[in-house]
Specification:
Layout: H1 2-12, H2 33-36, H3 43-53, H4 60-66, H5 71-74, H6 82-120, H7 125-154, H8 168-194, H9 201-221
Protein name: DUF4149 domain-containing protein
Keywords: Signal
Signal peptide: 1-17
């Protein structure tokens, strides 16, 4: 689990926030006729044609799957064509909606963990053992929800050129994502050690609060 969390941190540090503010709006399926006029007639033209279908900037994880030589292109699962890019737009729409849903599920998990942590501070004996097991279960579920939320964002198809627009909340979401990802990993590491070292519990709680304090506004920021 620690290795997975460290991998998520490395991916999160390169996040260019996924603009999901438009995902709840109806998507129109219109193939850009400009692409048709750029049909390649030489190797150089082919390179320019491919560049016109993809944004200049993509996440590393997006490039692995959706880049010109990405896995899905090589396997011919997602051919790089104007029609294919329009289909990818629908895939992105679905993944961004799912990203928001799992994000709110993760937020609920953070709240449950916070409540159980507060009760653990005053628990003793058998009550402490029950609360500790419940907290560990809640943490596991939250970890899965958080990891799913991150992967949906990091591996979604890149936006179309016509969708490359900035809104006020995207930059804020980007910076808050780095903060809550760092806090999330720190919380899990400290939680695994706090069972043997009680003096680490205050630091774990601070990390958990920081994660929650950054995660909640990060979700809200996507609405603006």
């Amino acid at each position: 689990m620690s290795k997975l969390l460290i991998l998520l941190l490395c991916l999160g540090l390169q996040v260019q926030a996924q603009d999901s503010t438009w995902v709840l709006q109806p998507a129109t399926t219109i193939v850009d006729t400009a692409f048709v006029n750029l049909m390649p007639t030489s190797p150089i033209d082919e390179s320019l044609y491919i560049q016109s279908l993809l944004p200049h900037k993509m996440l590393f994880t997006q490039r692995v799957f959706w880049g010109p030589n990405g896995l899905l292109r090589v396997l011919n699962i997602a051919p790089l064509t104007p029609e294919g890019r329009e289909k990818e737009r629908k895939v992105r729409l679905f993944m961004m909606i799912a990203h928001q849903v799992t994000g709110f599920a993760t937020l609920a998990g953070f709240v449950v963990q916070g409540i159980l942590d507060a009760k653990l501070n005053n628990a003793t004996g058998g009550n402490y053992s029950q609360l500790y097991k419940a907290r560990q279960t809640a943490m596991t579920i939250t970890n899965i929800a958080y990891g799913t939320t991150a992967l949906l964002s990091l591996t979604a198809p890149p936006k179309l050129s016509s969708d490359q627009k900035r809104v006020s909340g995207v930059q804020l979401h980007k910076y808050l994502s780095i903060i809550h990802l760092t806090g999330f990993i720190a919380t899990n590491i400290l939680a695994s050690r706090a069972a043997q070292r009680a003096d680490l519990r205050p630091y774990q709680q601070v990390a958990a609060f920081t994660t929650f304090a950054a995660f909640a506004p990060a979700l809200i920021a996507l609405k603006f």
